[in-house]
Amino acid sequence: MKAETTGARLPRPNTPRMATLPPGRPIVLPDRGIAFVRDAPGPAESTPVVLLHGWAATSDLNWFTSYGTLTERHRVIAMDHRGHGRGIKTSRRFRLNDCADDVAALLDVLEIDKAIIVGYSMGGAVAQLLWRRHPSRVAGMVLCATALSFKETAKDRMMFAAASPTAALVKAIPTSMRRNAAIRIMTGRQDRDIRQWALAEVANHRWVRVLEAGSEIGSFDSRRWIGSLDVPAAQVLTLDDDVITPDRQQAVGTAVPHATLHLVPGGHAAVIDTPDRFVPALARAVRTVDCSVRESL
Q1: Which one of 44, 58, 60, 161 is least enclosed by Cβ atoms within 10 Å?
Q2: Radius of gyration over every alpha carbon of the chain, rounded to an integer in angstroms
Q3: What's the pTM?
């Protein structure tokens, strides 16, 4: 696997007001619900890119630093996962499989045959499941700050074991505590310039579903089947990540040896905290996958 690091520097957005969000609208997914979707047009000949966000985040919170760069070369689509932000409202228990099926249904509605799927953290698990359940819809894959299994250490086991029973008690947790917890999960701290906007982003979370998502992440394990991945792939590995440690991220490259590797100094929230490093690496990863997709046509 060939590794690349980024030395390029881009202006770092201090607040979301400095980022341009793509047009967004609610879209009905037949028999599934109403999803909130960002959809930015790109060059007609480009391969569409679908962005899948991480646990307790939203598409905008996860990807606002990346939209502008990616839309220079691609049509970019992003959706809030069910139970997160403005995602599908449902009384059904959160399942990662359902999230993967939601993406396939969205591609149907948008009349997109195939797309490059970019998944961050939990979104990486959804991306892998999308390929397993709907392989004909995946042109290529970029996995960012994610893993093949999320429950390997004692710390992991304690966190995910608590997620399911805690979901039943979530209404007893003050709303401010829930929101602050989500911001810490995504940014690692509370004193961010984006804090007020981020709080508004997570205000619409269905917290029972979000905590159920934590339990689902803990049960995810693709190690038995991801080695069969047969589409162009790339990995963006966050070198200072203490949530999904680099050695666990490296297991992706071991299982998918044809994936190109793009190294980014930064923690689990590098996409927000150090976009000047993360975004160029992401763009390069998408570009390498797209080139391989085009060569295979």
Answers
A1: 44
A2: 17
A3: 0.86
Degrees, nearest 5: CA angle 117-49-106? 75
Distances (CA, A) of 57 to 81, 187, 251: 9, 10, 24
Number of neighbouring beta carbons within 10 Å of residue 165: 10
Beta bridge partners of 4: 262
Q: How many angstroms separate the Cα of 174 from the Cα of each of 153, 162, 169, 171, 272?
A: 29, 18, 11, 8, 26
Beta-carbon count within 10 A of 236 CB: 28
| Residues 6+ away with beta carbon under 8 Å from 84 | 53, 56, 57, 58, 205, 206, 209, 210, 213
pLDDT in tens, 139-157: 999 999 999 999 766 555 4
Phi, psi of 50 (to 5 degrees): -110, 125
H helix and E strand count, the chain: 11, 9
In terms of pLDDT, which residue wins out, 172 or 93?
Answer: 93
For the beta sheet containing 115-120, the strands, ordered from the edge strand earlier in sequence to the opposite edge, are 3-5, 260-264, 233-238, 138-144, 115-120, 49-52, 76-79, 33-40, 24-29
Ordered alpha helix ranges (H), the chain: 59-63, 67-70, 96-109, 122-133, 154-168, 175-187, 195-202, 207-219, 246-255, 270-273, 275-296
Could you tell me the domains of the chain?
3-148+220-296 (3.40.50.1820)
The residues near 205 (Cβ < 8 Å, ≥ 6 apart) are 56, 83, 84, 85, 178, 182
